[in-house]
Amino acid sequence: MIKLHRVSKYYENKIPALNDINLKINKGAFVFITGSSGAGKSTLIKLIFSSERPNTGEIVVNNKNITRMSQKEIPFFRRKVGVVFQDFKIIQNRSVYKNVAFPLDIIGTGRKSVKKKVWQVLKWVGLLQKKDSLPLHLSGGEQQRVAIARAIINNPILLLADEPTGNLDPLLSFEIMKLFKAINARGTTVVIATHDKNTAQKISENIITLERGKISG
Amino acid sequence: MFLNKIIYSLRTVLNNCKSNLLINLTALATITLTFIIFAIFLLLVINLSSFQKHWIERVHVLVYLQDDLKPKAINNLKQFIENQAEVSYVKFVSRDDAMSSLKSSLEGQDGILEGLSYNPLPNSFEVKIKQEFLNIDSIEKFIKIIGQKLGITDIEYGQKWLERFTRLFHFLRITGLSFGLFLFISSLFIISNTIKLMVYSRRDEIEIMKLVGATNRFIKFPFYVEGVIHGLAGSIFALFIVYIISLLISKNIIAGFHFYFGMNTFLFLNPYQLLTVILIGLMLGLTGAFISLNGLKEFKI
């Protein structure tokens, strides 16, 4: 599903965020990327999501070399990939329903179909009762479930999550992780970046550890 | 699918307008004001041009003759003038006819001429110029040719008026053009800044749109629509306001103007000119949006 070949990424300070990374993640895998702050976890997620381009190396996602992808192709690639962030990135002045429907609206899905899909997903993440609520009136865990619902509404082949439980207490974190496991069970490849190695070890054996931009284990 | 996208974008425009009402109204007011000033200048130029045409059409060249000119010489001169390409017809006005005409035009004020013991008016030709030669250059050329003939004392066609008028007309055109250009650049700046403010106010939403796979074209479309709405609405409001102003001018001022200059109506823009102003509004909105959206970091990957 994901292949990285000799990938390096430098920012302006010239210190490599990722240094000569080689990596392979199989289709249907549930993978944690762990490491301390600044190890390069978020950069790796951004590169796989094509939110940033590597300075050197090649990245292949779902048999597509995304390093050679044109700017115009990126949105179409992103429609096959779901992303979840620590800060949820949901629109605060729109209802839960509208937030989840957003990816369908931008591809021009009809109203009836949008309604059907949003109801299904909201039911699945346990937020159907709150479909008309604004995100401000939801707890952190609920907001993250809105973000997850939005990420999976298009049935992505790959779900990326960058510190998805960073703002949540242990109990809520566990609930969110259960949700990711369920998504993975439906066949979606899941890659989660987290600094919490202990939680990762409890949930999956598939852990990639980054240290100063290099894979250490 | 495409229609759904359009509907979604238009709903976004409506929401944006509602949530940024004050910014939108300020931009709209400024653009309307720009177009009001532009349309007023346009109306002035159109009406002055119509007035100039109207006035020139009534131009007669008066050729005054020496008192002692024999009938044969007068006839020769008449023939010479008639043979000029610019001339439509020539009418001889004897000094007696000129006096009777003056008397009839001074009806009721005959006292003015009472003390006059002799007729001071000269014989003259009233020359009507053909339609295609009714412009200053042709008239001046014609006057230069016949002015060289002996027996002619003076030629008159209201040239000072015409020159002054042409200068005023030229001045108005240049002023209108420079002022208009300045206002349009300001409007462009205002539209592009308004749209930039809209982009900044929706920065988070744009970021999320990109995350979920929206194309730049889809994200930018509502902003272009907003620019077009500003330009179109501004120009249409302005035309409406200027139309009301022109109606008021027609009713209250033209009556007095007619007495002096024979103008019957204050002209408003014709449908072609109206459409041009509206199209300028549309282009202004589109260009403003294009300037503001081009190169914004919000639209990079």
General description of the model:
- The complex is a heterodimer of chains A (217) and B (301).
- Chain A has 217 residues and is an alpha/beta fold.
- Chain A has helices at 41-48, 74-78, 96-106, 111-125, 140-152, 170-185, 197-203; strands at residues 2-10, 16-25, 30-34, 56-61, 64-65, 81-85, 158-162, 189-194, 207-211, 214-215.
- Chain A has one domain (2-215): 3-Layer(aba) Sandwich (Rossmann fold), CATH 3.40.50.
- In chain A, a hairpin with a 2-residue loop joins strand 4 (56-61) and strand 5.
- By secondary structure, chain B is an alpha+beta fold.
- Chain B has two domains: 2-55 and 162-299, no CATH class; 60-101 and 121-157, Alpha-Beta Plaits, CATH 3.30.70.
- Chain B is 70% helix and 8% strand.
- In chain B, helix 2 packs across helix 8 (216-252).
- Chain B is elongated and about 100 Å long.
- The A-B interface holds A 50-53, 71-72, 74-79, 83, 89-93, 102-103, 105-111, 150, 154 and B 1-5, 8, 19, 204-205, 207-216, 218, 301.
